[in-house]
Design brief:
Length: 532
């Protein structure tokens, strides 16, 4: 029988099979090695993408604010922030980014408040960022797997804001209506300019405050409260008291907030009638407005009888109750008796604008007109300077306690001695600021203060024990009397109670034209604190 194959042919066939087996084995080895290596690369890329998206989500949350043009949520700013952070982290193969917020009606982040309108206190500024990227393989291409798509989701959150606006509405907020900003003139009658809504700088302050709120606050998530330094008149004939008033408690509603700011009125006391009734009044000469005066004090101090002069008491007249405004801010943050209104997780920020130093306080049982030491009543009769101002001593950086012991005071007219408290309006405002700043644990309450106009730069009668300077366009100048207080409130208040307070800053506005820039700086500063 003839053989079909020789042994040499058989050996050749076996060698051919071995090459095929080795080839497939090598491909399998490459595939296994590629699987291991590319899987490792995939995990590295996933970690890199996850970190990038985490950072991008936080950055996007910081843009949870209104679009300056439309007032709607600024989604474009969020998208820009996401792509910027992906670029910074050198992750350039992302092909799609999707952003969802609690404003969406579908696909909302799971942690969003299910009842945003009925229970807005629980609203949160959540931003969910989902990014999809193509990951190229290095070795798995051998077996036909070139790439894979990877999707990562992350949620960022920005703090909601509870903002307190404390606005000076004392008589000086009408002094620029018709001319000089340092003294009242005929056209500065608050009864007239309140009715016309053109009191200056009051009107300018309101305009800038509204712009500030619209640029910073996202309504429905952030809240604003408005506090006025004095009572608010309903019409030109109304008479109000000088005590601070909460015009609007913390509110989410845009119309209510803007309306409260827009409706602020300059202090409108009674018209002088020649009597010695307590309280400030508006003086008219020949039918024309002249100025606000403390008529009861002037009648007594001008009396020819020294015994009557010595009883002149001005404590019912001053109206710059900075401490009283701050106490109302404390009540607002505390929920005004309703703890359900508190939001401990929010950023608590207060902005206080004043046009002069403190010279009034809230009344109490012992001091029905508030704290106003008797040694400040008759300064013009003192034999030598420093001469104190009404209801505050001559030294703007001194500090007295309401619980300190009484001191002996000699009346400069009658010579009678009495025991009095030296606790004054400035001390009262500092104590109130300490309580407000330390009201919240952690970073406390951040307070910004603005001194408006020449009234805050008036030097003190006595030499301060601590130096204080304010930067100007031409260098620096010494602080005015009011600025010692305003700087303390912004920079130092509450440190003895809570050393971790994240303080604000004091700003000087020489006129209303500089207010807009100051409020923009404050808004930027607040935005920075949100991300901390």
């Amino acid at each position: 029988m003839k053989r079909l194959f020789s042994s040499a042919d058989l050996h050749k066939k076996e060698r051919g099979q071995a090459i095929i087996i080795i080839t497939f084995a090598f491909i399998g080895l490459v595939a296994v090695a590629g699987l291991v290596i590319d899987t490792g690369m995939l995990m590295i890329e996933y970690g890199k993408l996850k970190r990038s998206v985490d950072a991008a989500a936080i950055a996007a949350a910081q843009e949870f604010r209104p679009d300056p043009n439309t007032g709607d949520l600024n989604i474009q700013a969020m998208e820009n922030a996401v792509w910027s952070f992906l670029s910074i982290n050198q992750f350039n193969n992302v092909n799609n980014v999707v952003i969802h917020t609690c404003e969406d009606t579908v696909d909302r982040p799971q942690l969003c408040n299910p009842d945003p309108e009925g229970n807005p206190v629980e609203n949160r500024k959540l931003v969910e960022v989902t990014a999809t990227a193509d990951i190229e393989f290095a070795f798995l291409k051998v077996v036909g797997i070139n790439s894979t798509e990877m999707t990562v989701t992350s949620i960022g959150e920005a703090a909601t804001i509870d903002l307190l606006l404390m606005i000076d509405t004392s008589g000086s907020m009408a002094y620029e209506t018709s001319g000089s900003p340092t003294s009242p003139e005929t056209g500065d009658d608050p009864r007239v300019c309140n009715a016309n809504d053109n009191c200056q700088p009051m009107r300018a302050v309101k305009d800038v405050a509204i712009e500030f709120v619209n640029s910073l606050i996202y309504f429905g998530y952030d809240r604003v409260a408005v506090i006025a330094m004095t009572g608010q008149a309903a019409d030109s004939n109304a008479v109000v008291n000088r005590n601070p008033v909460e015009v609007l408690p913390l509110s989410f509603d845009q119309n209510s907030i803007i309306g409260a700011i827009n409706g602020l009125k300059v202090f409108q006391p009674r018209i002088c009638d020649g009597s010695n009734s307590p309280g400030e009044c508006l003086e008219y000469l020949n039918g024309s407005f002249n100025r606000p005066i403390c008529q009861t004090y002037q009648i007594l101090v001008s009396d020819p009888d020294p015994a009557v002069q010595s009883t002149a008491d001005p404590s019912s007249c001053p109206s710059s109750n900075i401490g009283g405004m701050i106490e109302l801010a404390q009540n607002a943050y505390s929920g005004s008796g309703n703890s359900a209104n508190q939001r401990a997780e929010s950023l608590w920020v207060s902005v206080l604008l004043a046009s002069g130093p403190a010279n009034a306080t809230n009344p109490n049982d012992d001091y029905p007109n508030g704290f106003c030491p008797q040694n400040t009543w008759l300064g013009s009769f003192l034999p030598s300077p420093p001469i104190p101002k009404l209801c505050r001593d001559a030294y703007p950086d001194t500090r007295h306690s309401a619980n300190s012991g009484l001191v002996t005071y000699t009346n400069p007219i009658s010579g009678a001695e009495m025991d009095i408290s030296l606790y004054d309006a400035d001390d009262y405002a500092r104590d109130a600021a300490d309580s407000l700043a330390a009201l919240k644990s952690g970073d406390g309450v951040t307070i910004y203060t603005i001194g408006l106009g020449a009234g805050v730069t008036v030097p003190s009668a006595g030499t301060p024990t601590q130096s204080c300077t304010v930067a100007t366009t031409t260098g620096t100048r010494n602080c005015g009397e009011a600025e010692y207080l305003l700087r303390y409130i912004a920079r130092d208040a509450g440190d003895d109670f809570n050393p971790t307070i994240n303080h604000g800053e004091y700003f000087f506005a020489p006129n209303n034209l500089t207010l807009q820039n100051i409020f923009e700086i404050i808004a930027q500063n607040i935005s920075t604190k949100i991300s901390q």
